[in-house]
Every structure is written in C-alpha cells, then in structure tokens.
C-alpha cells in the first residue's frame, strides 16, 4: 500500500472518530493530510463521514489549490492549503465544530490559561474565503490550534494523530474553562 493510499484510509478513520467524539455535526468539519511537498489530501464537501470511500478523498495542489477528479473538495481547502504552505512542519489538520470551542468562537474569544493565550481566535471571515484562510493562517504561525471566529476550531500537527489529539484536548480544555466559569 502506498503512503497516499494509507493516508486516504486514515483520513476516513479520523472522520468517523470526529463524529464519535462529538467534535462535528453532520458533514461539518474536515480533515486533511500532507501527502508530499506539493499535495495534500482532504475530505470531500458535504459527504457523510460514514459513506466516504478512499477514492472520494481529494488530492489538492498546495500552491494553486487545483485538484484531481470530479469530487469537490471541502470548501475550506484554501485554509488548509495556506497552512501547509506557511507551516512545513504541519502534516495533518483537523477542523472541528465542537460545542465547547464553539462557545469561544461565537464570542470571538481566545482560550486563555493562567494569563497565556493557548489558542488564539482569528478575525472573522466568511467560510471558504481567502480572507478567512489568511486570518487563520496568520494566527497559526505561532500556534498549533486556532479558534475561528463565529465558525469553529482548527488543529494542526506533524501528523493526523497529533492534530486529532490536539482537537480533542482543546475541546476538553474549553469545557473545563466553561465549567469553572459557572
């Protein structure tokens, strides 16, 4: 099995885990993995995570966001692509719409612990736009996770395992902070 074939299967596995962990609702959220210096793989737009097949995962060029095949990639491909372009150390990205972090996103607030910003909140931009991608990538320059104003959360790591673990940990941390605030 090639590296690309393995990554396609792993993206599907992690998509199902996003649903099981309650980090997304319906077909919201997306996952990508860098397959080479030139390409990344990303989940398709609007497809149920339990119905995605390996051939549905879309291969996208990092430099111009062109993609192969007839399956439409996630509308957030631009955000993923810009992060991969700016952060060579990122190998996997997980974008969630989880309930606790959604509170911070809706309030446009960073997650702060002991006076230190753990996850900054980006400025607002319409989903799928260059503007949103630039706002998120700017915050991503110095952080592994970013709360997206009025939108959700995005986590990156050296691979899918670390990006997913960060998304889970951030949701838990946000929940603890909200509980402490009661």
Describe this structure in words.
The protein is an alpha+beta fold and 182 residues long. The chain has a single domain (3-181), classed as L-fuculose-1-phosphate Aldolase (3-Layer(aba) Sandwich). It has helices at residues 3-20, 77-86, 99-107, 130-140, 160-181, and strands at 30-34, 39-42, 58-61, 92-96, 111-113, 116-119, 145-148, 152-157. The chain has a six-stranded antiparallel β-sheet, with helices on both faces. The protein has a two-stranded antiparallel sheet with strand order 5-6. A hairpin with a 4-residue loop joins strand 1 (30-34) and strand 2 (39-42). Helix 2 (77-86) runs parallel beside helix 4 (130-140) and helix 3 crosses helix 5.
Task: Please report the first level of CATH classification, the CATH class.
Answer: Alpha Beta
Fold-level CATH name: L-fuculose-1-phosphate Aldolase
Give helix and strand order, one letter per element, not per position.
HEEEHEHEEHEEH
Question: Strand order, biggest sheet?
Answer: 3-2-1-4-8-7
Number of helices: 5
CATH architecture: 3-Layer(aba) Sandwich
Q: CATH homologous superfamily?
A: Class II aldolase/adducin N-terminal domain
Largest sheet: 6 strands, antiparallel
- Alpha carbon gyration radius: 15 Å
Mean of pLDDT: 94
* Uncertain ranges: none
Number of separate domains = 1
Q: Portion of residues in helices?
A: 25-40%
Features:
two-stranded antiparallel ribbon; 182 residues; globular; 38% helix; 8 strands; L-fuculose-1-phosphate Aldolase; 5 helices; six-stranded antiparallel sheet; 19% strand; alpha+beta
How are the SSEs placed, and which strands pair?
Elements: H1 3-20, E1 30-34, E2 39-42, E3 58-61, H2 77-86, E4 92-96, H3 99-107, E5 111-113, E6 116-119, H4 130-140, E7 145-148, E8 152-157, H5 160-181
Antiparallel strand pairs: 1-2, 1-4, 2-3, 4-8, 5-6, 7-8
């Amino acid at each position: 099995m090639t590296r690309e074939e393995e990554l396609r299967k792993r993206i599907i596995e992690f998509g199902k885990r996003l649903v099981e962990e309650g980090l997304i609702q319906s077909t919201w959220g997306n996952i990508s993995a860098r397959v080479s210096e030139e390409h990344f793989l990303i989940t398709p737009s609007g497809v149920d995570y339990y119905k995605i097949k390996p051939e549905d995962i879309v291969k996208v060029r990092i430099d111009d966001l062109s993609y192969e095949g007839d399956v439409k990639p996630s509308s957030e491909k631009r955000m993923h692509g810009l992060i991969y372009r700016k952060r060579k150390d990122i190998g996997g990205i997980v974008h969630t719409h989880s309930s606790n972090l959604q509170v911070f996103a809706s309030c446009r607030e960073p997650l702060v612990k002991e006076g230190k910003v753990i996850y900054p909140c980006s400025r607002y931009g319409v989903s799928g736009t260059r503007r949103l991608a630039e706002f998120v990538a700017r915050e991503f320059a110095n952080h592994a996770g970013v709360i997206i104003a009025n939108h959700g959360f995005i986590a990156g790591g050296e691979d899918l395992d670390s990006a997913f673990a960060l998304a889970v940990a951030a949701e838990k941390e946000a929940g603890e902070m909200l509980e402490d605030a009661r």
